[in-house]
Amino acid sequence: METTLTTPDLHTTSGDQPVKIRLRNLTKQFTTGGGPVTALDDVSLDIPSGCFFMIVGPSGCGKTTLLRILAGLDTPTSGSVEVSEPAAGRPGNSMVFQGGSLFPWMTVFENAAYGLRMRKRPKAEINEVVGHYLSRTGLSKFSHAYPHQLSGGMQQRVSIARAFSNDPDILLMDEPFSALDEQNKLLLQEELLRIWEETRKTVLFITHSVDEAVTLGDRIMIMTAQPGRTKQIVDVPFARPREVLELRALPAYGELVYSIWGQLREEVQRARTQDEGSVKS
Ligand SMILES: Nc1ncnc2c1ncn2[C@@H]1O[C@H](COP(=O)(O)OP(=O)(O)OP(=O)(O)O)[C@@H](O)[C@H]1O
Ligand SMILES: [Mg+2]
Question: What is the pTM of this model?
Fold first, then answer.
């Protein structure tokens, strides 16, 4: 088993960009009281540098497990993970979790500054960088507020400001907007697109929403029901910068969403049949 998490540049390419993340035959099994559970099964993937890479798949297909392995929070059972080394002094990745990942005893500013402070960056740099991202996420006025004084959408904006302030090589986002109402989701998608345009970081973004995947992504991986495998990888052809509402008005947008839904629906139905089977047995 090979689990290299930092290797020198991976030069081989798929397309023009160098490969940032390379997975080969990645498998993850969990041991549970009910026997072994295969969360990921033989996933092989190249993600180019600067790609906004979306992952969709039915509940329980291993999406979070994949992100946790990339974040170094979990290890694969077999297969290999290679990630090209970040520039000196820059963290490899930052993860944005679904809700509830802020420190409740820290202010908005302190939360957003956490990664930079841990890396002992100079105070002037922290003030400038964090100030920039709090402004970009519309939170400047709330920099001294505490998380419990914010709405769910504002808290997610702090998580995003924290992740970008940390300036990681790779951003790992696990359903960051799924708990939000439609209006706030739309605004945050637009904000994320604008901030990402400035940095063009490599992003891995999990979502249950096909609309969100097509709106944000360059490439979408559709996963099978458990055990999670790659069912299909779809390139999103729309030019950037993107305006969310304009994009959604395009006939080609609707066609792409429809075709991805067709693929995903089969897997969601399969996952439901599996669940019903396991309840009966
Ligand atoms: N620590 C663990 N111990 C045992 N089983 C686990 C563990 N973590 C995940 N699993 C199992 O692995 C499978 C994949 O879980 P994972 O959380 O990656 O799914 P997911 O695709 O993120 O689902 P969702 O869309 O519901 O968030 C599930 O069957 C889950 O029960
Ligand atoms: Mg998950």
Answer: 0.91
